[in-house]
Amino acid sequence: MTQVFSKWLLLAEYAVNKEYIAKNLCVNKEKPKLKCHGKCQLMKKMAEDTENSNSGSENGMAKSSLPEVLPFDDFCNIQLIAPSTESIVHNSLYILKAYTAPIPSVFHPPLG
Prior knowledge:
Layout: H1 2-16, H2 18-25, H3 39-55, E1 57-58, E2 61-62, H4 72-76
Antiparallel strand pairs: 1-2
Helix pairs in contact: 1-3
């Protein structure tokens, strides 16, 4: 799983420690015209990571530390929960109620 994110982790580590890497670890710190700023160390670590992932893989597929098949006991311990049979109460202003006719004594056109 870490092999999947290893490139991103290296980039994040470089971004966080960019000043330290540029000052102390950069091979080209004496040559400011190259504007390396520690990218040489980043490329070196990425090459090492690629080499490590290639040496630890079979047929181009990385080995996983997860078991290929989960034990049967794990499947037997799963609890299934049935859906509730209680009626659902909707608290919404948009639920339409039964129609009632307007009261004619209150709602009428203006007189004269």
